[in-house]
């Protein structure tokens, strides 16, 4: 990963957000993060990012907390997991079964064929993006938040793939605004009945490889340099 390009993009996103009155902090004190998430009225927390289910350390998980006028209003969570040679589909099946308490190990009735091998090795998960309804912001601001978070992950972890799951509408927004994801699979996983609260069979899997993200950041850095030189 071209860390100089990543830093350039990160600085540009941070500058625009600060100009619009948005600041952020990276938090790894997970007990306090849980309190902050309640403070911003976040209605859900996926088990993959729950500190009550996972034994997180400062090296493998973080939250980006967004603030306006010094008060938190939004959040994005992330975690790192090296699955070695395990098939990605198997990883999804095993982790979802454990997270949702499915004893027979089959939380997912089906995983779409394109999703089975969509990621591998060292994984960075990007999820639980949430903004209080009073602070939705503009599409440009939303993109800056997403790309800022991508840059934080890229500087923090030497991953092979970054991925997330999201609903159909949010996936279309991510594609239109270009969050950096280059691989897309709709209806990526079908849940066994009953479908867990907050999940749906219409979820999309978004992902990018290390090389895809390297190219994304280099391209974005060139664009930012051009904007600065005007």
Topology diagram in text:
Layout lengths: L2 H17 L2 E6 L2 H10 L21 E8 L2 E12 L5 H12 L8 E4 L1 H4 L5 E10 L7 H18 L4 E6 L1 H10 L5 E3 L3 E3 L12 E6 H20 L1
Parallel strand pairs: 5-6
Antiparallel strand pairs: 1-2, 2-3, 3-5, 4-8, 6-9, 7-9
Helix pairs in contact: 1-5, 1-7
Keywords summarizing the entry:
25% strand; alpha+beta; 230 residues; two-stranded antiparallel sheet; seven-stranded mixed beta sheet; 7 helices; Aminopeptidase; single chain
Walk me through what this model shows.
The protein is an alpha+beta fold. The chain has a single domain (3-229), classed as Aminopeptidase. 40% of the residues lie in helices and 25% in strands. The protein has 7 helices and 9 strands, in the order H-E-H-E-E-H-E-H-E-H-E-H-E-E-E-H. The chain has helices spanning 3-19, 30-39, 88-99, 113-116, 139-156, 168-177, 210-229, and strands at 22-27, 61-68, 71-82, 108-111, 122-131, 161-166, 183-185, 189-191, 204-209. The strands form 2 sheets. A 7-stranded mixed β-sheet has the order 1-2-3-5-6-9-7, with helices on both faces. It has a two-stranded antiparallel ribbon with strand order 4-8. Helix 5 (139-156) links the parallel strand 5 and strand 6 (161-166). Helix 1 (3-19) packs antiparallel against helix 5 and helix 1 (3-19) packs across helix 7 (210-229). The longest helix is centred in the C-terminal third of the chain and has 20 residues, at 210-229. It is globular. The protein starts with a helix and ends with a helix. The relative contact order is 0.17. The mean pLDDT is 92.
């Amino acid at each position: 990963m071209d860390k100089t390009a990543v830093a350039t993009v990160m600085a540009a996103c941070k500058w625009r957000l600060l100009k619009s009155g948005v600041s952020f902090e990276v938090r790894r004190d997970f007990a306090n993060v849980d309190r902050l998430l309640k403070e911003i009225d976040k209605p859900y927390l996926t088990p993959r990012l729950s500190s009550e289910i996972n034994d997180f350390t400062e090296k493998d998980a973080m939250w980006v907390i967004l603030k306006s006028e010094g008060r938190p209003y939004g959040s994005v969570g992330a975690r790192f997991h090296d699955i070695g040679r395990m098939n990605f589909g198997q990883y999804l099946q095993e982790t979802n079964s454990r997270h949702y308490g499915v004893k027979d190990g089959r939380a997912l009735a089906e995983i779409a064929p394109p999703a089975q091998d969509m990621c591998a090795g060292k994984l960075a998960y990007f999820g639980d993006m949430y903004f209080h309804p009073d602070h939705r912001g503009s599409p440009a601001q939303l993109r800056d938040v997403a790309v800022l978070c991508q840059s934080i992950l890229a500087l923090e972890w030497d991953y092979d793939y970054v991925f997330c799951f999201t609903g159909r509408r949010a996936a279309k927004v991510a594609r239109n605004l270009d969050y950096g994801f280059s691989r897309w699979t709709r209806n990526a996983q079908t849940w066994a009945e009953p479908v867990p609260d907050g999940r749906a069979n219409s979820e999309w899997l978004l992902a990018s490889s290390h090389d895809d993200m390297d190219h994304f950041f280099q391209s974005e850095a060139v664009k930012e340099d051009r904007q600065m030189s005007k």
